[in-house]
Write a structure and sequence with these properties.
Blueprint (H helix, E strand, L loop, with lengths): L1 H19 E12 L7 E10 L2 E7 L7 E7 L3 E5 L1 E3 L18 H16 L2 H17 L2 E8 L2 H11 L2 E8 L10 H15 L5 E7 L7 H14 L3 E5 L3 H11 L3 H7 L7 E5 L5 H10 L2 E4 L1 H6 L7 H6 L4 E3 L12 H16 L7 H15 L17 E5 L11 H8 L5 E6 L2 E5 L2 E2 L4 H18 L8
Parallel strand pairs: 1-4, 1-5, 6-7, 7-8, 8-9, 10-11, 11-12, 12-13
Antiparallel strand pairs: 1-2, 2-3, 5-14, 14-15, 15-16, 16-17
Helix pairs in contact: 3-4, 3-15, 5-6, 12-13, 12-14, 13-14
The structure holds zinc ion.
Length: 463
């Protein structure tokens, strides 16, 4: 009996000591957890083992842990990795190719022809690498992507050490890689099977929009997403033009149409959601649809203002997105947070809407919830994935610091990010990208720029 008891006590002691052995301890910074209580530890610590956070708390409790490596985060702010819920990563190579145009003019006369002449696997590989460099540098740990040659997007994300939710765009007209929706869906099926178990890449199904996909294509996309239990990504109610086209063809609005055909469900992540009625907001809430709000793209394309306060009030999970670099023109979510807050304030003529703390939640745990990943990502809590960002507070624009949320949304920039860990591994250390060859990526971007410019009609090139 005594032998058994001592064995038990030894086992308990061993477990306790194991619990205190951590791989990395980030200690002494201002830790903004974005947990449900909005806990901030100043100073605080975060400890992780493998890909998981095993402890978060005030700095005085950090002594209980035996880390294999320690980061002194004094003078830094520590927060969860940001989640970019909508974009087209490879379109970084079209940054600035055509601006100041109507959405349909921009798409039909500039972007789609430029894509038809330039987009191939190599373009997507280098464009996504360029996007990954920009996103990691500005604190993004996960990006949602809808583009072509999505295999290359998944590979580039993995190589960069980033998380991606990647969906091959499904369209009813010829795209750079597939001529029909059926081919794109077949490819998506294989793509999902190849990536389903990956720790960083989540494959998805991405029918482009209600005005570019037939009912059959939309429903086949939904069935594929249901069969594999993966996210279903779509552009929804982005422009007045779209609403008119859908009304002419189906006699109703985009959202009501998707509801009617049985498309809406909780795995849907809808980008933009600008032209929706009160009833449609309730429809989206009841279906559990997540929304990606893209303030800068909506402003730049003059699309309109999404009713984000009403979406949030209805209980819809809303995340932030940058959209592609051709309609933004950068992938910095710090800028997106700033724009989101101010866009709704000016739109409502009220400084109290979309407060800084709410916007930080949107860029982190809100995005995770829109993807049904809030049990894994979006905040610094024990058991969640170790995705976190360190920002330098020893800078003129970072001081004095009264409110961390105010500072994050209204003062700090993506360029204040110094280090990033994703899935427990460092991807940016003291401003240095660890997995990407940045000089080679920038050189390639210049090479693509020359090629793309030469491919455009004279009328499509602007000084
Ligand atoms: Zn988009």
């Amino acid at each position: 009996m005594n032998a058994l008891l001592s064995l038990l006590l030894t086992w308990i002691a061993l477990q306790a000591s194991l619990r205190r052995d951590v791989e990395l301890l980030i200690d002494g910074g201002v830790v903004v957890t974005v947990d449900p209580h909005g806990t901030v530890h100043d100073p605080g610590f975060v400890a992780f083992r493998g890909d998981r956070i095993v402890a978060v708390g005030p700095a005085r409790e950090a002594g209980a842990f035996r880390p294999r490596a320690r980061i002194d985060a004094k003078g830094h702010l520590v927060m969860p990795g940001l989640i970019n819920t909508h974009g087209h990563a490879a379109m970084t190579l079209f940054r600035g190719v055509a601006d100041d145009l109507e959405l349909m003019d921009w798409l039909k006369n500039y972007i789609w022809p430029a894509e038809a002449r330039n987009v191939n696997a190599d373009f997507v590989r280098w464009g996504t690498r360029l996007a990954a460099a920009e996103m990691i540098r500005s604190g993004t740990s996960l990006f949602v992507d809808m583009y072509y040659f999505e295999e290359e997007v998944a590979r580039a994300a993995k190589e960069a050490g980033m998380r991606a939710v990647a969906g091959e765009t499904v369209l009813d007209f010829p795209a750079p890689d597939f001529k029909t929706a059926q081919e794109a869906l077949q490819y998506t099926d294989g793509f999902i099977r190849r990536w389903k178990k990956d720790p960083l890449v989540i494959p998805a199904v991405a029918p482009h929009a209600p005005y570019t996909c037939s009912k059959e294509t939309l429903l086949a996309s939904k069935q594929l997403a249901d069969r594999h239990s993966v996210p279903l990504l779509i552009h929804l109610a982005e422009s007045r033009d779209e609403i008119e086209q859908v009304r002419a063809r189906h006699g109703t609005t985009s959202t009501a149409y998707l509801q009617e055909i049985g498309f809406l469900e909780d795995r849907v992540l809808a980008a933009h959601v600008i032209f929706v009625t009160r009833e449609e907001i309730d429809l989206l809430a009841r279906a559990g649809v997540g929304v990606s709000h893209n303030p800068e793209s909506n402003m730049k394309l003059g699309s309109g203002v999404s009713p984000v306060p009403e979406l949030l009030a209805a209980g819809i999970a809303v995340g932030l997105g940058t959209d592609g670099a051709a309609s933004n023109n950068n992938l910095d979510l710090f800028e997106a947070m700033d724009f989101a807050s101010k866009l709704h304030k000016i739109h409502r003529l009220s400084p109290t809407v979309l407060q800084a703390r709410e916007v930080v939640r949107m860029a982190t745990v809100g995005g995770a919830a829109a993807l049904n990943l809030e049990d894994q990502l979006g905040s610094l809590e024990v058991g969640k994935k170790a995705d976190l960002v360190l920002l330098d507070l020893n800078r003129a624009r970072a001081q004095p610091l009264y409110s961390v949320y105010s500072q994050l949304v209204y003062a700090l920039k993506g360029s204040d990010v110094r280090s990033v860990w994703i899935d427990g591994k460092p991807v940016l250390r003291d401003g240095r990208l660890l997995n990407l060859d940045e000089p080679a990526i920038l050189e390639k971007a210049r090479e693509f720029q020359r090629r793309i410019r030469a491919s455009l009609m004279p009328a499509q090139t602007r000084p």
